[in-house]
Design brief:
Layout (H helix, E strand, L loop, with lengths): L26 H10 L14 E2 L11 H9 L8 H13 L4 E5 L2 H12 L5 E4 L4 H8 L4 E4 L20 H11 L6 E4 L12 H14 L3 E4 L3 H11 L8 H10 L3 E5 L10 E5 L2 H14 L10 H14 L2 H20 L12 E5 H4 L9 H13 L1 E2 L1 E3 L1 H4 L14 E5 L7 H16 L7 E5 L10 E4 L1
Parallel strand pairs: 1-10, 3-4, 5-6, 6-7
Antiparallel strand pairs: 2-8, 7-8, 9-12, 11-12, 13-14
Helix pairs in contact: 1-14, 2-11, 3-11, 4-5, 4-10, 6-7, 8-9, 8-12, 12-16, 14-16
The structure holds ligand F0G.
Ligand F0G binds next to helix 4 and helix 5.
Length: about 450
């Protein structure tokens, strides 16, 4: 294992077997192309992007053995061997009684909350991801975020900044437990910077849920990254097998939603799992109506194979050490380049504090958008604004600054090498050195909701 080798450089624990070209473009080309799409990077053709750090979801490279699994995929409508391999692989890590395959994470969320949500209900979470919140709210229920205070402060150092504020959860359940169909725990906490949750916090949350008779569900998208942080940072967990930590995380909960596009190491896929027979029956009925028969969900047999194999690879210690170390490497490089970033560095992404970097741009002139445009124009990097563009428009039509103006550089799994990341750091150095010259933006056209995907901008 790599951990026993004492070299400074953390290498990519793989060789490259099949390559994809990336297209070089000039700064002049990029300035024209971004202007043509109204300064919104979601409007670009991905061929015109050199390094695509928009998301870590479904954008990673698959292994030789996953591609071999794709070839073996059995497309039988019912009871395919590919389904049984998927089921066995999921239950090896998450031994829930019922596993319900879906085409991706949000489909699992939609099914779960359609069954357990509804007007008057409240679902607490450390922090809901956007689609989770949207699926809770679509049923008329309320989505409540209860992350610890440190989780909301970009500079606060805490080893488990994704933890649930158990005291606030307890106080809330004291008042409203009858309206809470489930408590969720998102690992790692994506919206809070990819920050982990400790086993101790999961245990404490479980204990409170038990006292009020409320089930606890994991939003497990980045479970392996979370387990690696537990192994590295939590007292008494060093030296433990990650797969074993994952099983303990599962044992503290009653079910899970999952996007296999993250720690499933696949390009598509997901599932919903639980122990409760009645709930499973209701969810399966909805699955058949909206996704597919319960032995394939919304997936092809070959997709089930890719996930089954990905789950075996994602708990490998060499892989996880490389994954977490390489994200931290980017974060440290950005700090040296003069970029303020959310600390500590999370598992799947580095979050730049754009408001901190560009204090001369008012939040309503979108400092995050300005940084995103400059990263593309300067070096062909596509990042994602997570700030006032994404969250500023209020349901009553007014606009106000988001709590933070962040820019996320999400790292696809096993896709970019260290020299690619060195280039990203160099581009950031250049952007940082000319930050005083960057200007704000105004929105010239926006849809009624989820405006960040399609809004058009112009320099302010
Ligand atoms: N939960 C979390 C914590 C997520 O990060 C995501 C997706 C989902 C649920 C939904 O899963 O995409 O398979 O439907 N996050 C991606 C991102 C899109 O870029 O962070 P999905």
């Amino acid at each position: 294992m790599m951990g026993s080798v004492s070299f400074r450089t953390i290498i990519e624990p793989f060789r490259i077997h099949s390559v994809e070209p990336v297209r070089m473009t000039s700064q002049e080309d990029r300035e024209r192309m971004i202007r043509d799409v109204g300064f919104n990077v979601f409007g670009l053709r991905s061929d015109d992007v050199l390094f695509d750090l928009l998301t870590d979801s479904g954008t990673g490279a698959m292994s030789r053995d996953q591609w071999a699994g794709i070839q073996r995929g059995d497309e039988s409508y019912a009871g395919s061997p590919s389904w049984y391999r998927f089921l066995e692989s999921v239950q090896e890590l998450f031994p829930f009684k019922h596993v319900i395959p879906t085409h991706q994470g949000r489909a699992a969320e939609k099914i779960l909350f359609t069954v357990i949500g509804g007007p008057g209900k409240v679902v607490p979470n450390n922090t809901h991801f956007d689609t989770t919140r949207a699926n809770v709210e679509a049923t008329g229920a309320e989505a409540l975020d209860l992350v610890i205070a440190e989780g909301l402060d970009p500079a606060a150092l805490h080893p488990f900044k994704g933890n649930m504020d158990v005291e606030r959860l307890e106080a809330f359940l004291q008042e409203r437990s009858g309206d809470v169909p489930a408590v969720m725990m998102t690992v790692t906490n994506n919206s809070g910077g990819g920050q982990p949750v400790s086993l101790a916090n999961l245990r404490a949350t479980r204990e409170v849920c038990d006292r009020f008779g409320v089930p606890l569900f994991l939003d497990a998208c980045r479970f392996a990254e979370n387990a690696w942080f537990i192994r590295e940072r939590e007292e008494g967990q060093q030296g433990r097998e990650v797969a074993d930590i994952v099983r303990e995380m599962a044992s503290l909960t009653d079910g899970m939603t999952m996007s296999a596009k993250k720690d499933g190491l696949a390009n598509i896929g997901g599932w919903l799992a639980m122990n409760d027979d009645d709930l499973a029956e209701q969810c399966r009925t909805l699955l058949i109506r909206t996704e597919g028969f319960p032995t394939y969900g919304g997936l092809a047999g070959r997709d089930l194979e890719a996930v089954a194999q990905g789950l075996r690879e994602v708990v490998d210690h060499d892989y996880l050490q490389y994954r977490i170390r390489s994200t931290a490497y980017l974060g440290e490089g950005l700090v040296n380049a003069g970029m303020p970033v959310v600390q500590p560095i999370g598992g799947h992404a580095v979050y730049i504090d754009a408001r901190g970097l560009l204090p001369h741009i008012a939040p309503l002139q979108y400092p995050g958008q300005s940084l995103v445009v400059s990263l593309y124009e300067t070096g062909g990097i596509r990042a994602c604004e997570i700030g006032t563009v994404m969250f500023g428009r209020q349901p009553d039509g007014s606009e106000r600054p988001a709590a933070l103006d962040l820019v996320r550089l999400a790292i696809p799994r096993r896709t970019y090498t260290q020299s690619h990341i060195d280039y990203v750091i160099e581009v950031c150095e250049r952007v940082s050195s000319k930050s005083a010259e960057l200007g704000g933006y105004r929105i010239v056209d926006e849809p009624p909701s989820l405006r960040h995907f399609t809004a058009k901008f112009a320099p302010a």
